[in-house]
Amino acid sequence: MRTPAGKECSYFYGDYYRGRQVEECRLLKDAGLSWTSRLCQTCPVPEIQFANSCEHQQLIPELKRPIFFLRPEVSITAYCTKSNQEVKEPRIGCGQCHPDLPQFVITPNDPDSAD
Ligand code: SF4
Questions:
Q1: What is the distance between the alpha carbons of residues 82 and 106, in angstroms, rounded to a whole number?
Q2: Which one of 1, 28, 42 would you pick to mutate in the ligand 1 pocket, going by the greatest count of ligand atoms within 8 A of its CB?
Q3: Would you call 65 helix, strand, or coil by DSSP?
Q4: pLDDT for position 42
Q5: Fewer C-beta within 10 Å: the chain N or C terminus?
Q6: What pLDDT digit, counting tens, does each position of 30-53 carry?
Q7: Cα 68 from Cα 82, distance rounded (Å)
Q8: Whose CA is nearest to atom 7 of ligand 1?
Q9: Which residues have any ligand 1 atom within 6 Å of their CB?
Q10: Positive/negative CA dihedral, 7, 8, 13, 14
């Protein structure tokens, strides 16, 4: 669903049916954090979901102030339930399901190698 900031986020829920005006972030709600629509403006979750849709990656939100006098923003850490490790870069993933391609090596016995 599209957030008030105009980005797609699977955790956003809005109910506007028949004049209702219910909006919530289910990621922050499940973590016991309070949400306001302002938080969607700087939240990294839509970009993470756009770049990486791994079903094993869990996103763990926190509200942090970038500088002590600024308003809190959503900060995300990620955990992979398949490899049981913290994911350093949630946009990329832990790398277990989608490892880098193996390097191709042409040996002297390869029929395609030049003689
Ligand atoms: S705060 Fe982040 S996770 Fe929550 S609805 Fe907004 S964009 Fe989605």
A1: 34
A2: 28
A3: coil
A4: 97
A5: C
A6: 999 999 999 999 999 999 999 999
A7: 36
A8: 40
A9: 3, 9, 11-12, 25, 27-28, 39-40, 43, 45-46, 74
A10: positive
Tokens at 101, concatenated: 């391609």
Rounded Cα distance, 10 and 29, in Å: 13
Sign of CA dihedral 77, 83, 85, 88: negative
Pocket residue to mutate for ligand 1, from 23, 24, 25, most atoms within 8 A of Cβ: 25
Dig out the tokens for 39 from the structure. 């938080």
Average pLDDT over residues 71-93: 96
Instruction: Compute the average pLDDT of residues 9-28.
Output: 96
Among candidate residues 40, 50, 32, the one with its CA nearest the CA of residue 90: 50
What is the reported pLDDT for 30? 98
> How far does residue 109's CA lie from ligand 1's centre (Å)?
55
The three-state secondary structure class of 64 is: strand
Helix (H) / strand (E) element for 85: namely strand 85-87
